[in-house]
DNA sequence: AAACTGCCAACTGTCGACAGTTGACACGTT
DNA sequence: AACGTGTCAACTGTCGACAGTTGGCAGTTT
């Protein structure tokens, strides 16, 4: 059934994927500890690969390691969110600038598609799904064509998702976000790097404030 | 002599430090492979902790993992340098902006000290040591008071150091760098975030060009 | 002689077991 | 009753050994 390394992914790699999923979905709730023997048995693997998986997720910021105590799912306060968004702003503003100067027509089509889908969903009474927000930022990132920045944004995004569990999206915020996205696309289409950066900064500032507000009850 | 976890650092943690040193100093040259059993014996530890150390360094970008082949010290070409500096520019420009708005008088004193030491060394006929360049950027980073950005810059800096082995510092470049540093300090002292960002971008652009030139023989 | 095939050593991926540390509970003391 | 102490179970850190895969080499074929 499970030969050591059949063809594609090592046990450690599979464990990384499974654990990441469980942490991001909250199946393993923030603040809880990850028991090595217990999880290893549940995944049907040994402690060795699982340990590697845990360390990997810790390097991504999805787990925090305490010597001789184990790995914990971090639960953040408003202060952490603010600090994290400083990094995200630095990365995504730079990405927005690069996208404005490097985007192709295909990139613009994709960006318009995502924005249009968000609008239609919203007008149909559906809430603006976080999935589409992620898709927009990912598409913009692809247009920037900077693999290292993209990789770092991916890691930060993950951590934001981890903290997003308690976030109740309210309609005003959703509307403002979609407006920001549209404005970003316009700036990128015009090749206006400075404006793209400015709009992105304002957008992320808004999102950050929203998250901090919902974290403070 | 070596109980499992004597008091402070795990064997894996120690191995990380030793290996990082060996990789950054070029003791383990770029392109070479890291043999697990060999290095483990040389460090007097088992393969388990060493594997964790290897994975950790890989997550920092100091090693690249190839399934079933092992870990290699990456040797980069000009294209990689350019891509890496896009990330570094995004991070350090943001840090420069934050430093301009958050710096205290103590930060300014420290920045002036580093610049002064660089100048005096240079005028004494000594080459501008890379150590002082790192110190300057680190001091500026401290003034920005953004731990996440600082951590990411540290990782990128490491990778730059890894590629720096073949870099011959020529006096014109050193002089220009010191001028950039002085100009940065002025902007930070004035609290001029926009100017700090601009100067930092120009500075890193110069350093990047210098590195790419020396990589192309 | 060049290309293909089968074998082999070296190394990574994985596992189970042992040793040391940590936090907690129970007990005794002040 | 509150505090300090000793003991203990649970867990992490570490180790040595086995299984599977990879790349290279020798031998054979065309």
TrEMBL record, chains A, B:
Domain of life: Bacteria
InterPro entries with a match to the protein in the record: GntR_C, TF_FadR/GntR_C, Tscrpt_reg_HTH_GntR, WH-like_DNA-bd_sf, WH_DNA-bd_sf
Gene3D superfamilies, sorted: GntR ligand-binding domain-like, Winged helix-like DNA-binding domain superfamily/Winged helix DNA-binding domain
Keywords: DNA-binding, Transcription, Transcription regulation
Pfam families: FCD, GntR
Residue ranges of every copy of the HTH gntR-type domain listed in the record: 9-76
SMART domains from the UniProt entry: FCD, HTH_GNTR
Keyword DNA-binding set for record: yes
Protein name, per record: GntR family transcriptional regulator
Annotated organism of origin: Lentzea indica
């Amino acid at each position: 059934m499970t030969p050591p390394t059949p063809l594609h992914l090592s046990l450690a790699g599979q464990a990384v994927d499974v654990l990441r999923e469980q942490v991001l979905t909250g199946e393993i709730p923030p603040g809880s500890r990850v028991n090595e023997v217990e999880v290893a048995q549940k995944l049907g693997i040994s402690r060795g690969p699982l340990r590697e998986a845990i360390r990997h997720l810790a390097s991504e910021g999805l787990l925090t390691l305490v010597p001789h105590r184990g790995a914990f799912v971090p639960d953040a306060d408003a202060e952490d969110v603010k600090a994290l968004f400083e990094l995200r702003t630095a990365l995504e503003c730079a990405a927005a600038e690069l996208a404005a100067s490097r985007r192709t027509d295909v990139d613009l089509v994709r960006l318009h598609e995502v924005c249009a889908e968000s609008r239609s969903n919203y007008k149909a009474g559906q809430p603006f799904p976080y999935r589409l927000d992620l898709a927009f930022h990912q598409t913009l990132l692809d247009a920037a064509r900077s693999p290292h920045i993209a990789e770092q944004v991916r890691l930060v995004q993950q951590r934001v998702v981890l903290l997003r569990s308690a976030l109740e999206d309210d309609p005003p915020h959703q509307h403002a976000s979609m407006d920001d996205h549209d404005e970003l696309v316009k700036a990128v289409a015009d090749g206006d790097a400075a404006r793209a950066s400015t709009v992105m900064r304002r957008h992320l500032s808004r999102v950050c404030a929203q998250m901090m507000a919902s974290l403070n009850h």
